[in-house]
C-alpha cells in the first residue's frame, strides 16, 4: 500500500492517481454526504488507485472506511487489502454492493454498469449513490437514475469540484 503524499488544497487539483480533481472542500463535502453511524459500509465501484477513497477514509476517522471494487488487484495503490473487493472483469458485479449503505461511482466508464448494479444489488438499506465525473458525461447517466428508485437528484453547487466536473447525489 502506498502512503498518501497528497496535500489537498482549497482549489481543485489533479493528481495522476485520480481522474477527479481533488480539493479540501470536495473531500469535506463528500465526507459530510456519506451516511454516518455504526456498521456503515460505503463502496466505491471502480475505485482505481483508491486515492480519493483513502483521503475520504482519513476524514471519516474511526467511524468506518470507504471500500473499493476493482477489476485487477494491480490497480489499487492506497486502500488497505481488507478494504478491497475484486471482480472477474468489467462485466462483473461485486456482491458487497448488496450490503453497502452508499455507492460511489467516480468517472465510471459505462452507464450500463450502474444499470446492472441497480437491477441486481439495490436493497432497502442503500440510501445514496454519489456520482462524480465530467459534466459532459452526466447526460449519459441522468436517465439511468431518473428511471430508478434513486430518481431524486441533487447536483452539488460550489462543492469544490473543478469547473468542468460535477458531483450528483442520487437518493430515493
Ligand atoms: C475511468 S477509471 C476511474 C478510476 C477512479 N474512480 C478514478 O476516478 O481515478 C474506471 C475504473 O473502473 C474500473 N472498472 C471497470 N469496470 C468495473 C467493474 N465492473 N467493477 C469494478 N471496477 C470496474 C476500471 O478498472 C477503472 O479503474
Describe this structure in words.
This protein has a seven-stranded mixed beta sheet with strand order 5-4-3-6-7-9-8, sandwiched between helices. It has a two-stranded antiparallel ribbon with strand order 1-2. By secondary structure, the protein is α/β, with parallel strands linked by helices. The relative contact order is 0.17. It is globular. It contains four helices and nine strands; from the N terminus they run ββαβαβββαβαββ. It has one domain: 3-Layer(aba) Sandwich (Rossmann fold), CATH 3.40.50.150. Helix 1 crosses helix 2. The structure holds S-adenosylmethionine (SAM). The site of S-adenosylmethionine has 18 residues, from strand 2 and strand 4.
Instruction: Return the CATH architecture.
Output: 3-Layer(aba) Sandwich
Q: Residue-averaged pLDDT, rounded?
A: 94
The structure class reads alpha/beta
| Ligands | S-adenosylmethionine
- The percentage of residues in β strands lies in 25-35%
Radius of gyration: 15 Å
The low-confidence runs, each spanning 5 or more residues with pLDDT under 50, are none
Outline the biggest β-sheet: 7 strands, mixed
Into which percent range does the helicity of residues fall? 10-25%
How many DSSP E strands? 9
Order of helices and strands: EEHEHEEEHEHEE
* Multimerization state: single chain
The CATH class turns out to be Alpha Beta
> What's the helix count?
4
For the biggest β-sheet, the strand order reads: 5-4-3-6-7-9-8
**CATH fold-type name:** Rossmann fold
Q: How many domain regions? A: 1
Sum up the overall morphology in one term.
Answer: globular
The termini sit apart by 36 Å
The CATH H-level superfamily is: Vaccinia Virus protein VP39
Amino acid at each position: 500500500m502506498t502512503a498518501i503524499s497528497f496535500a489537498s488544497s482549497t482549489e481543485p487539483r489533479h493528481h495522476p492517481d485520480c481522474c477527479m480533481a481533488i480539493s479540501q472542500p470536495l473531500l469535506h463535502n463528500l465526507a459530510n454526504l456519506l451516511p454516518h453511524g455504526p456498521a456503515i459500509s460505503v463502496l466505491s465501484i471502480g475505485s482505481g488507485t483508491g486515492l480519493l477513497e483513502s483521503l475520504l477514509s482519513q476524514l471519516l476517522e474511526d467511524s468506518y472506511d470507504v471500500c473499493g471494487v476493482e477489476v485487477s488487484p494491480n490497480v489499487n495503490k492506497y486502500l488497505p487489502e481488507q478494504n478491497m473487493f475484486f471482480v472477474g472483469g468489467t462485466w462483473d458485479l461485486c456482491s458487497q454492493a448488496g450490503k453497502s449503505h452508499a455507492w460511489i461511482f467516480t468517472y465510471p466508464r459505462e452507464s450500463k454498469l450502474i444499470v446492472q448494479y441497480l437491477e441486481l444489488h439495490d436493497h432497502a438499506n442503500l440510501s445514496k449513490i454519489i456520482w462524480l465525473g465530467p459534466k459532459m458525461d452526466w447526460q449519459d447517466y441522468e436517465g439511468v437514475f431518473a428511471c430508478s428508485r434513486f430518481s431524486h437528484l441533487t447536483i452539488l453547487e460550489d462543492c469544490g469540484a473543478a469547473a468542468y466536473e460535477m458531483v450528483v447525489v442520487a437518493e430515493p
